[in-house]
Amino acid sequence: MPQALDLAGRPLQDVPVLVADTGLDLQHPDLAPRLYALPSAVAAPSAEGAGGTVQAGRPGWDLIGTNAPGALAPDDDPDDPPGGSGHGTMVAGVLGAAWNNGVGGAGVAPNARFVALRTCWDGDECFQSVQAPAIDWAAARGARVASFSWLSGPLEDGLRDAIVSHPQTLFVTIPSGNGGAFDADGDDPQPCGLDAPNVLCVSTSAPDDGLDCGAFGPRSVDVAVPTRNNITTTNGGGFGPTSCATSFAAPTAAGVATILFGIDPSASPADVRAAIIDSARKVPAWAGKSTSGGIVDAAAAVTLFQQRRGIAPGNGGGGGAGDSQDRTKPSLTVGGGRVSRGFASFSVRVSEPGTVRFAIERRLSGRRASGRCRPATAANRRRPRCVRWAAQRTQSITFRDGTAGVGADAKTRKVRLAMKSSSGKRLPSGTYRVVVRATDAAGNRSATRTVTLR
């Protein structure tokens, strides 16, 4: 992403965005600085005519106000509920977590401003009757991008009208859950299937550019994005790694769209959508599997968008053969993985200076429901069994020039990770793995390496 920002020919303007989901952790250090603030008090959005007022300075509204579907009890606190899934917080972090603040990672778009509206319960319970007034309210506040990490089912008139009646907002949505690669065209996923110039449908790509856990479809899917092994925000002020999930695909592409709108706010959603699709990096696995046949390339999208808008490139040189920007991915070698006395030991070598991130994940069994592997409960005990990897803790270590572990021929560096959770508690017995990735000074990322602990 730094390469794409280097190519921006204008300073990015802040762009209001809507993540219609379970809410946002409003106190999170990576999200609080990026919240929208209402300039003056206005009527609150309402799905049932409940009324209410959003006061000046507030970021948004809770349209549902309860922890489970039922009678709505809207209020002025769009926080992601404590103890819940934190789905909205994670999705928002992918799109626009704060940059350069010394904590966590960074979202795709440093210029995103979150219009905070809580519209979904956990478990992908996102009623269309709630989404429509949320869209209307966010669009009236200037939201240029709306990210949906859920499927609506057959479109109701209210949601269809809300999308179509706001042609200045780009709606980024997904074709499926995470049940694996399949052709979604026959299912007519919605809102992906809505024939509108302001709808962009995004699926997942694997680290090797192949198909992954999301669906494909030359009529349904526009582009794919990689979603594994990044860092995002978690409820309660924490951070955790991302995985293969279409929930992370929508905000990734939405972040790229936010950057493009930040370069030129006068652009239409059709302009932004076309730049993202037409600049996608073509790969064999996606040929004939989507409209673009490729994977989102943020730098190429910025370059093409600016060419079409008559905007000169920034210091990155505009891409292409003459571009002097460093785009070489670092190579990473990881060995070891033995656990002894509460520590996991590794031998690590990276080809150039940078930061190496270690993400500890625990293997858990569950039941597949609504396209996801969820914790086993009495309600889903008859669903198929599945395996999921739950984030426990991440740790980043700097590898400096001239030190052990840096250089293609250098000796490996010994690294020890404490087997503790992000809260400092000792991890219980079980099966664990560590996902490792290196990032160099230019922002280039290595291929991921996964080590199963023993």
How do the strands and helices of this protein lay out in sequence?
Layout: H1 2-7, E1 15-19, E2 42-43, E3 53-54, E4 60-62, H2 87-96, E5 112-118, H3 128-140, E6 145-147, H4 157-164, E7 170-173, E8 199-205, E9 223-226, E10 231-234, E11 238-241, H5 246-263, H6 269-278, E12 281-282, E13 294-295, H7 298-309, E14 332-340, E15 343-350, E16 354-369, E17 372-374, E18 385-399, E19 413-418, E20 432-440, E21 449-452
Relevant terms:
454 residues; alpha/beta; Rossmann fold; Immunoglobulin-like; 2 domains; 7-stranded parallel β-sheet; 7 helices; 17% helix; serine-type endopeptidase activity; hydrolase
Word description of this protein:
The protein has seven helices and 21 strands. The chain has 454 residues and is of the alpha/beta class. The protein folds into two domains: 2-309, Peptidase S8/S53 domain (Rossmann fold, 3-Layer(aba) Sandwich), CATH 3.40.50.200; 332-452, Immunoglobulin-like, CATH 2.60.40.2550. The strands form six sheets. A seven-stranded parallel β-sheet has the order 4-5-1-6-7-8-9, with helices on both faces. Strands 16, 17, 18, 20 and 21 form a five-stranded antiparallel β-sheet that branches. A hairpin with a 2-residue loop joins strand 16 and strand 17. It is globular, with a radius of gyration of 22 Å. This is Peptidase S8 and S53. GO terms for molecular function: serine-type endopeptidase activity.
